[in-house]
Every structure is written in C-alpha cells, then in structure tokens.
Design a protein that fits this description.
The protein has two domains: 130 residues, Zinc finger, CHC2-typedomain (DNA Primase, Chain A, Alpha-Beta Complex), CATH 3.90.580.10; 256 residues, no CATH class. The relative contact order is 0.10. The chain contains ten helices and 15 strands. The strands form four sheets. A five-stranded mixed β-sheet has the order 9-11-10-14-15, sandwiched between helices. Strands 1-2-3-4 form a four-stranded antiparallel β-sheet, covered by helices on one side. A four-stranded antiparallel β-sheet has the order 5-6-7-8. By secondary structure, the chain is α+β, with helices and mostly antiparallel strands. Helices cover 32% and strands 23% of the residues. The N and C termini lie far apart (61 Å).
Length: 414
C-alpha cells in the first residue's frame, strides 16, 4: 500500500469501538458499558453487542467478534475484511474519510511528512492499546473477584433445596436421593439493572438463585453463572424481572466474571474419560438424568454457544442458503454464516478439553437459527478433534423438532 493508504488504515485502527458505534449508527442503551441489540448483519433479535469498557464487540448469531472497530464495521455492513477493497471500505466507514487515491503522485517532502505522521499515529495507537488492555485487565480482575465471592457465599447442593426443586420441576422428574451436583444456591441474590439519577446501579430484584461456577483449564474459578428462581412461575420457574429500554423482557440468567476458556461442572469428575457438554445447565442435567448420572461421565455446561464451539476460522464464511438482508445501499444480499471450521490460532477460546478425554458429546439446541447453529456445532466438533486428537467427538441433537433435551425429558421421553 502507499503511504497515504498506510496512514488512512492507521487512522482507522485508532478509532475506538465507542467512536465507531456512533459512526455506524449502532444503538447505545442505558447500560453503562454493554450495549446489546439486534444484529444488523445476521438478523438476530438480540445477539449483537459492543462493550465500551472492554473495547470489544461480539455477534453470537454469527459467532464472530473482536477488539477493533474495522472488524465491527465490516461485520455490520456485510463486508469481508479479508478482501482488500472491502477492508478499505470498512476503514472509511469508521473514519468518515474517503479511501485515498493510490494513483496520485507525491513529492519527497510530502512523502517524508506522511511517513512521520504515520509513525506518530502508530506510536499513539500502541499507547492507546496498552491503556485499553490495562483497563480491561483491571475490569476483568474485579469481575472475577466478585464472581468468586458470589460462588463462595452460596450454599452447596446438599443444602440447596430451592435449586433441587427448580431442577426437578424443569425436568418434571425427581432427582436421585443423595445426588451431589456441582451447583449451589444463593438465597437472596440481587439482580442489578440500569442506573439511577446519581449513576449508581439499580437493584430491581432480590431472590433465590442457582449458582454455577466457571472453572478454567487448571480448575480455578474465573466466573459464575446465575439463574434466578421463582418456583410459582411456570413453565421455566424464573421470575418476571421487567423489561429493558427496548421493551424486551429481561433475562433471568446472568454471567459474572469470565466464561471464555471455562466450563461449569454439573455432575461427575473432570478426570472422567467421557464428557457431555452443552450450553445450559438445565440441558446438561436433563441428559445426565436420562443417562442415570453415569459415574464414568463428566457432565458440564459451557454457558453459551460461542464458548461451546469456539471462534470460527477467518476464512470459510459462506452465504446462508435462504436468509437475506438489506445492505446500506438498499440491495438484498445473502446473510453470511460463520465458518464451520475452528480458528487454529484461537483454539483455547472455548471450554477447555483435557487430553485424557476419549469421548466428548456436544449437545445441540434448536432454539437458534438452524444454519448458523449447525455450522457452529460442526466447528465445535472440529475444535475438540484438534485439541484432543485421541478423543472421539460427536454432536447430539434433540429428536422430534424439540428445542433442547430438557424439553425432551420433561415430556417423559427421557
């Protein structure tokens, strides 16, 4: 590239996620840092978000994300950042500047001045990146400490009658007497949402909750999963928590701390050679019940689809066979689906799989867009086979068009 283009790209790389979100007309919610919303690219109703504190963006529907504004601009506008013209168009979107004309000639003096500005811009970008990484590290450390506190204060399963009843009602089946699940109960867990006029977090609910812990590859707690419970509210026995700024019902589940690279133990020991892994705790518990809690199996949850399957390869994205969307020029174009192959450089960015495991079954769910979900599950299977070559990986889908295995067991077909 010419010096003019180099300077143009460096200017785009200097743009923060927050600045780019404004330029791209993305929605800023009333939440302090996290801004979830419908995805302009994949069409998911609530699968896209950006975080101004961490300077990251993520699309759960397409299983893509990153820490740069250029990639976010490319995704929301249906551009392939690996193709040079589309990469430069994404740079133009975040800077508001036209792509420089490479055909123009410049004097030696102009060239020297441009090179000096380019070096200054690169140094400034490096300084900002260090600041962002430090801020992100501090924020993550505080979140992980709070998550550990929630987990440590919660009562173990033997002293968690509300959690036991919740799971039994979700499954519509009794749990075996004396069963020891790796889940805990918080009797009065606060649900925070939004901020008051003074900027303080607002408590909108306080009640019993099921707590699961995220453990990293070394078995250390890095986060927690919270599910608030209301045993009177069928069918999922979770409380009504009001609606967010867009009128959508607030979820009764939250994650604190870190989940990437971690897993939630549900039953059994990680030293087992057979693993069953799903997105949610209820789904995994349902399969464990159907298998009579096999003592040779470790049942665990990843928390969400992205952590279950890991990130996609940068190449291999393909057109959805049926879904389309309208681009910024008003044209109907195909929705792009993330690659079914894992990113070899980011194999650790998913739940950890141990080398001693010989069989690993991933539990699929049919609640999300089927094409993107199938691609993600194939990616998860490939990721396991790359991380643990001696492990046989498989994907299990709930039969009969049911959304998940919890629904299957609840209907008496377990």
């Amino acid at each position: 590239m010419s010096v003019a283009l180099d300077l143009f790209v460096e200017a785009a790389r200097a743009v923060s996620i927050e600045e780019a979100a404004g330029a791209l007309n993305l929605q800023f919610t009333k939440k302090r840092h996290e801004h979830p919303q419908p995805c302009p690219a994949c069409g998911g109703k609530d699968c896209f978000s950006f975080n101004t504190q961490k300077n990251v963006w993520n699309c759960r529907g397409a299983a893509v994300g990153g820490k740069d504004a250029i990639g976010m601009a490319a995704h929301v506008n249906g551009l392939d950042a690996h193709r040079r013209p589309e990469f430069l168009e994404a740079c133009a979107l975040v800077t508001g500047l036209p792509v420089p004309d490479e055909a123009g000639q410049e004097s030696e003096t102009d060239r020297a001045a441009r090179l000096q500005r380019l070096e200054q811009q690169r140094l400034e970008n490096e300084r900002r990146q260090v600041e962002r990484q430090n801020a992100s590290f501090d924020f993550r450390a505080r979140e992980q400490a709070q998550a550990r506190g929630i987990w440590e204060r919660a009562a173990v399963f033997a002293q968690a009658p509300i959690v036991r009843i919740y799971l039994e009602r979700r499954l519509n089946k009794p749990l075996p007497k004396g069963i020891r699940l790796h889940l805990r109960q918080a009797t009065s867990q606060t649900y925070w949402h939004g901020r008051d006029e003074r900027g303080f977090a607002t408590e909108i609910h306080c009640g019993p909750a099921m707590i699961g812990v995220f453990l990293d590859a070394g078995g250390l707690p890095i986060g927690c999963h919270i599910t608030w419970i209301d045993l009177k509210r069928r069918p999922k026995f979770r409380p009504t928590l009001g609606r967010d700024e867009k009128g959508k019902e607030l979820p009764a589940k939250k994650m604190r701390g870190s989940k990437k690279g971690g897993l939630i133990p549900v039953f059994g020991e990680a030293r087992a050679r057979r693993w069953i892994v799903g997105e949610g705790i209820e789904t995994v518990t349902a399969v464990a019940w159907a298998e009579e809690f096999r003592p040779d199996t470790f049942y665990c949850a990843a928390g969400d689809l992205g952590n279950l399957t890991g990130p996609p390869a940068r190449a291999g994205r393909y057109k959805h066979p049926t879904l389309t969307k309208t681009n910024k020029n008003g044209r109907r174009i195909p929705v792009m689906v993330a690659s079914p192959f894992p990113d070899p450089a980011r194999l650790q960015d998913g739940f950890p799989i141990m080398p001693h495991v010989r069989e690993c079954v991933l539990l699929g769910e049919r609640d999300s867009e089927p094409e993107a979900t199938a691609s993600a599950m194939a990616r998860g299977k490939g990721r396991i086979e790359m991380l643990a070559p001696n492990c046989t990986a498989a994907i299990a889908w709930p039969p009969g068009g049911r959304g998940d295995f919890c629904e299957l067991v609840c209907e008496g077909m377990g």
